[in-house]
Design a protein that fits this description.
This protein has one domain. The longest helix has 16 residues. The N and C termini lie far apart (about 30 Å). Helix content is about 35%, strand content about 25%. It is an alpha+beta fold. A hairpin with a 6-residue loop joins β1 and β2.
């Protein structure tokens, strides 16, 4: 996967936030960051985002 989960320090809290850009949104020209408190959390959130926002019923 070209996109890697990245980590940044939060300014107002002594903890980190993990994030990744949605690859499908990126192709559509939309900047959408999927965030979480761990890399596993981000993976789960990205999976849910892809299923909810980018899955179309093909009937």
């Amino acid at each position: 996967m070209e996109n890697k989960i990245k980590k940044r320090k939060l300014e107002d809290k002594p903890q980190f936030q993990f994030y990744i850009s949605c690859p499908v949104c990126k192709k559509e020209g939309i900047k959408k960051e999927i965030t979480g408190t761990s890399s596993k959390h981000v993976e789960s959130n990205l999976d849910a985002h892809l299923k909810l926002k980018h899955t179309r019923d093909k009937k």
